[in-house]
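To close the chapter, one final illustration. This time we ask the reader to focus less on the individual chains and more on the assembly as a whole: which components sit near each other, and how the overall shape emerges from the parts.
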Amino acid sequence: MLAARVVQDHGVHVEGINFYTGFCVEGHTHAIRSKDQQRPKRNNALWVAEQLGMPLHIVDVIEEYKEVLPRPRYGYGANLNPCLDCKVFMVGKAREWMEANGFDFIVTGEVIGQRPKSQTRDKLPVINRDAGVEDLLLRPLSAKLLEPTRPEREGWVDRERLFELHGRSRKPQFALARELGIEAWAQPAGGCCFLTDATYSAKLADLWQARGSREYDLDDIMLLKVGRHLRPRDHFKLIIAREAGETRFLQGYKRRYPHLRTTSHGGPVALIDGDWNEHDLELAARLVARYSSGRHAERVELEFEDTEGRVRPLSVPPMASDCVPDAWYVGGDHGDS
Amino acid sequence: MATAEELDCRHLLCPLPVIRTQARVARMAVGAELQVVVTDPGALEDIPAWCRVHGHEVVATEAAGDEQRIRIRVGGG
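The assembled structure is written out below.
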């Protein structure tokens, strides 16, 4: 937001690009969980664009990102976040967009030293080189600490009116925002990607491990955001809805995954993912019964429905909660939040 | 009222309804109308916001059960 505003203040026409990888935190979970339905549903990128009076283009990079995430050239961060590869990829896509739409240079809000993996002084030139932008990438917030770029050399922007911010503290950015008359801003980056989340990353690693492949599709990564994930056996896992909103969401997948639902008591829908057998089905049903209102009953009645819509009844004793090993909760997430 | 093209974005979570709307509008003439059908309540904020920054007009929004219909008139950009 700040970087765009600084360049706008030079009289330059700026348009925003927001890349959608499928792992963006914004926008999804509030639409699924009932308890989150009342939360504000603001898309921060669009909100920023409105504040700055600039057009914003949201670009779907879901398919292309499948080539970035599984085998990042520069490795992962603390979790499955391939931040440097991600930056290279997105700046490269921005370059393509710039060339296709007749723009002259690219602006990012990067600040030297802000992020430990992808914004260090030695990593910024890697982004320029690998993304093929060379001196057409302007970082207005740290520009005075970097070699002059073409926009500065050509006088499209005045280097003297750019900044020399550096380091992890965001206080200088907040001060600059106030100086520019910006009173509100979006959540700073870092908390906007599920791949920086340890629990989410553990679920993704579990998915890859179980499949023996790092391939995924959008439904896979959406489902990792929903429900309790329990893997009682290596060859299958359950995704158990935690509340009514998640139950409605998971029902949308009933032609892709076989599922269980309780009939004698109120309870969740659960999808079964993997190569299960009849013996596994009883175990799965007992686990689902454990999360129903019949958890203390002698038996709970359920229905199993396969992906063809064939339904059959089951009757099982609910599993006692102390019989569910912690190791079954994928990523150690009991799904109580 | 002009006849509107319809875009089905049901069961898509934001920002996908915005992305689909953006792609469809890019192929439409100024003044044409598009009716977007969504189920994600977030789209009720995002699509009008996207329209505002691109100079398109939200002509009407109506609810029908879990679905929402957002009617857009394509602006000159």
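The first strand of chain B starts at residue 4 and ends at 9. Chain B has one domain: 4-73. With these observations in hand, you are ready for the problems at the end of the chapter.
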